[in-house]
Amino acid sequence: MGIVLGIESSCDETAAALVTTDRRIVAQRIASQDAEHAPYGGVVPEIAARAHAERLAPMIAAVMEEAGQDLSDLDAIAATAGPGLIGGVMVGLVSAKALAMAGDVPLIAVNHLEGHALSPRLADADLAFPYALLLVSGGHCQILRVEGVGQYRRLATTIDDALGEAFDKTAKILGLGFPGGPAVERLAREGDPGAVPLPRPLVGSGEPHFSFAGLKSAVLRAKESGRHRDADIAASFQQAALDCVVDRLAVAFEGIAPVPALVVAGGVAANQAIRGALESFAAERGLRFVAPPLPLCTDNAAMIAWAGCERLGQSDPLDIAARPRWPL
Ligand code: KG4
Ligand code: ZN
C-alpha cells in the first residue's frame, strides 16, 4: 500500500490531501476563495496566486499532522502542474518540489484534467477502463474517452465558453452573484423552461463540440428586453444548456467504440437537472451512470493525490515547468 500527498492550486481552490493506493482519503483540507473573487464577479489571477501562497504551506502541514505522516515516508508528492492560472499552479508546484527535495520523495506532476478524469476511480473501485467522461466546470467543457492512465481520447471540447462559465455569466446577467451555477439552478426551479425562446448552439452539427457564447448573448437580450421573468430566463437557459449537452453527447457516442459507463465530473455535475438528463441518456443506452460524490467532482486535492497513486512508480524531474496550457 502506498500513500501520496496531493496539492491543487490551479484555479480558486487551495487544497491538500493524503490518499492511499487502496482508495482511502486519510486527511484533506480545502479552502475556497469565493469571498475574495466575488466583488469582481469572477476569478482574479493575481488575487488567486496570493491566496494560494498564504494558505498552502499551513494546509499541507495540517494534513500531514492530522495523519501523523512523516514527509520521508510518503511514496510520492503529486501536484497540479497545469493547465490553469499560471501564478497559482507555480505556487503549488514549487511547494511540491521543495517538499520532494527535502524528504527525498518522488515528484509527480499531474495534469489537472487527468485528476478530474481519474477521480471517479477513487470513489468507485469497480470503475474499470474504458469509460466516457463528461467534464463540465467553470474552466473545462470536454467529452473524453478514458482508456487508461495517460490514455485519453478527447472527443469534444468547447469552441468558446465552458458550461460552468455560461452558468456564471447567466447569473451575472440576472444579478445573482458569483459563483452563479447554484443560484441559476435555484431560480430555474421557479421558472418555465419553455417560456423564453433561446438558441441551442451547434445542436444538429455532426461534430460533437460545444458552444455557449451565442446562448449567453441570447440570455442578455432576453433580460434587456424586459419582457421575461428572471426565473423563466434561468429555467429556459438551463433547459437550452441541457439540450446542448445531451445532443453533443449523442453525437460523441456515435463516433466511438462502445464503453460500458458514462461518468460526469466538474462543478456543473452538481446540477440536478443536468444530472437527471445524463442519467436518462445513460439508461436509454444501457450504460452505467457514475457521478462521484460532489466534493470529488469540484476542484480538490484528493483527485490529484489519486492521479499520483495511479502513476506511482513514475517520477518527474524537479525542474519540470508549470504549464498554463496543457491539453490531455
Ligand atoms: O469544478 P469547479 O469547482 O471549478 C472549476 O471551474 O474548475 O466548477 C465550478 C463551476 C462554476 O462555473 C459553477 O457555477 C458551476 O461549476 N456550478 C454549477 C452548479 N454548481 C456549480 N453549475 C450549474 N449548476 C450548479 N448547481
Ligand atoms: Zn477543475
Explain what you see:
The protein is of the alpha/beta class and 328 residues long. The chain contains eleven helices and ten strands. A five-stranded mixed β-sheet has the order 3-2-1-4-5, with helices on both faces. The chain has a five-stranded mixed β-sheet with strand order 8-7-6-9-10, with helices on both faces. It is globular and about 65 Å long. 52% of the residues are buried. 5'-O-[(R)-(carboxyoxy)(hydroxy)phosphoryl]adenosine binds at residues 11, 137-139, 164-165, 167-168, 179-182, 185, 266-268, 270-271, 298-299.
Radius of gyration, whole Å: 20 Å
Ligands and ions found: 5'-O-[(R)-(carboxyoxy)(hydroxy)phosphoryl]adenosine, zinc ion
Number of helices: 11
Annotated CATH homologous superfamily of the largest domain: ATPase, nucleotide binding domain
Main sheet specs: 5 strands, mixed
Helix and strand string, N-terminal first?
Answer: EEEHHEHEHEEEHHHHEHEHH
CATH topology annotation of the largest domain = Nucleotidyltransferase, domain 5
Cofactor: Fe(2+)
GO cellular component, one term: cytoplasm
Family: Belongs to the KAE1 / TsaD family.
GO molecular function: iron ion binding; tRNA N(6)-L-threonylcarbamoyladenine synthase activity
